[in-house]
Amino acid sequence: MIRNPDFSCFVCCALCSKILSTPPSPATFDRIREYKPFKTRYYTHQDILEIGAGIHFLHNRKEAEIQEIMEKMKAELWTQAEMHTEDMVEKALKEAAANHNAFVQDLKQKHGQELREAVRKAKAEMQEAMADEQKREVEAAEQRMLHRLQRALLECAHDKMQAVAEARRQEREAAWSETAQQQRKHSDKLKEAGILAEEVYLKNIEQLKTEKNKEMNIALDIIQRKNQCETEKQLREAESLHHHELEKVMMTLDAAEDQVKTLIQKLDRMTAWKDSLETEIQATRQAFQKYIDATFPNLSPGQADFILPLRTTLQEKDTPKEAEENDKE
């Protein structure tokens, strides 16, 4: 269903242009026929004709009423004219004619404006209705054309798919037959190639055996030479290392001998100094003993030894030279 944006009506489908609309109610038509201002969106051609007929009927009825009024006024005037003089009759006729003309002009102006406004509105509504109807017809035609195009495209796509499937089937059959022939040819070639390859393989194996034996002999010779060179090199390195270590030991021995010599010299100086000190102490004891003997003659010998400086007898140790001589002996 296609909804019309301006009217509350619908188009049935894209294949037919039948319009399904909601008609106005009877009360609405009565109000339209009474020629009262009423806005509605449901005018059709028949409704517009009925509105025009109603307006024409109202106009004729108004003219008939005016004519009846004029006839009545004329009758009244004629009756009054019989009662009055001719001057009064003429005056009354003139006044009546003037009043009648004024009344007719007022009615014409009033109803003319209303008629023109109603005609203008009816024309505008008819134009809008015709434009909407044309628009609906165009939309319906476009939808019908679109529906036909879609059906044509679907049929073309279906035919295309069938043609493609048939072409693929034929191509597959041709490819299968061709591959079968190629497989047979390749199988024959593979058999022949297998026989030749086996013969070549056996020849290559024998050739490889001889070459490998030669290579192994050469490699053994090279390895033996390398091992001999490495052993000689290691011996030379060991000799050089031993010589270097021996030089280090000799240097340490020389340094130790120098230290021993310096120690012997120091020891000689110390022993000489000790001897001089002992002689000095002995002389001091003797001098002090003489002083005691001279000062205290009554003391017995040895009684005043505690005053004298102490003298400890030290056992002389062997010098390094004497130790070496004792070791040699």
TrEMBL record:
Annotated region (Disordered), positions in chain: 170-189
UniProt entry keywords in alphabetical sequence: Coiled coil
Residues in coiled coil: 112-144
Name of the protein this chain belongs to: Uncharacterized protein C6orf163
Species the sequence originates in: Tinamus guttatus (White-throated tinamou)
